[in-house]
Amino acid sequence: MSDYYFMNGNTLEGFQEQIADVKERARKLDREDDIHFAVNGFCIVKETEEEAIQLLQEIQGKADKDAVNAFSDATRQAGSSTNNKKGMWADSKFEDLVQYNDGFKTKLIGTVEQVVDRILLLKSLGIDIVLLAFLHYEDDIENFGRKVLPRVRELEKEGRGKDSEDEIRRTGDVYRKRT
Prior knowledge:
Elements: E1 4-7, H1 12-28, E2 36-45, H2 49-61, H3 65-79, H4 94-97, E3 108-110, H5 112-125, E4 127-133, H6 137-157, H7 164-171
Parallel strand pairs: 1-2, 2-3, 2-4
Helix pairs in contact: 5-6, 5-7
């Protein structure tokens, strides 16, 4: 058994279900306190949410359709061999699969404050690590380090990121499964 369970991007309910399932499995082995959670994410931080969404749509629009569809087919085949016959990508749409680990579904796309709130929500769910991808790695990671991380740390000192109900109330609707 591993100490970390890495998840693809998901809905709020999807994160909660996976975390509960893994904790239950770890509990049966008396390892519940030893298990940690991580999630893949793609991060776009812009001055406005509209700018961030526009860039997301541009990335998705320029995707190699054949490559994404081939990946989708492969994930469906792999998923059919799992116990639940679904696998991690069962609910992923074309737009999600452009970033192979459903990183767009982690929803770290928006303004500094929106991304900060979403990171704190993920933390409150028990996610310890967010493995990020960026479009323009050097510039975007510098921007993230200058603007997002200091704000996350500041709000953590104020007690944010611990109460999942509070964090869900603040930003959880962005993660809820749409019907």
